[in-house]
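Reopening this one. Same input as before:
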Amino acid sequence: PINPTLTDKGAFSALAYDENGKELKPIPLDPGTDPFSQFRVLQSSFNIQVAANMGIGVGSISGNYSAFILSYEAMVFTEKIVESPIGGKIYGTRWGAGLRVILKVSEIKSNVNFNFGAIAASTELGLAKVEYEINGIGINKPDILAVLPGPGDFNFTNYKKILDAVDAVKTYMSQHTTDLQPKPFQVFVTDDSNKDIFTDTRGILYAMRNIVSRNSLITAINNSQNKYSISTIKSAYAKFQIFDENLEPTRDQKKLAEDFLNT
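Same output, byte for byte:
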């Protein structure tokens, strides 16, 4: 996901401070293309720094490495992909309209699933702190958004209200396409040109092998002897829902890591 706001030159505001930020624009749809050809609920999770880089976030982006962002989007959209990336970075754009729910999950006290409903349950049990915001994207008549819950705790009650609102907005969008304005809400990007892909990949493999060995996160970091990026190791462990640096991976997590290495 990306903040769909554009500069007066048509580039993404969120990427304006990149070295070639003025070139980083959404890939336009071909003339005559239906911008609302499909409906899908899209979920993705990523770390706080990635969220900040894409202009996505809730409140302050400060916090420890275990905090992450979950994006839940109910959108009508069409995507465009090209062979030659714009600005050497953007090779695809999804244009659409709908709802975007952003959850910032922190103060995690247990293994929390990267799942919208599971996170709601975790907050009810006091296992995580969750901040959230809801945005309508490309909806010219914001009164439909009145069905959404207002600011408050992200709990199971508000989770249910959001699901009900998604159904209502989906129906509205199917009946009022003329009231929708397609926005570039997601992009496909190449790997950072300044990133050492080979070293990063080795860091991921190193972390996976440590999970297979059921080494705690802190053990994996200490044993790496600065050969690999600490953030890469932490991210790999987080993908397996391991946030406590002193917690040994479970047998199930070991099995998942083994499957990863064997694919």
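So the earlier flakiness isn't reproducible anymore. For the record, The two ends are 27 Å apart (CA to CA).
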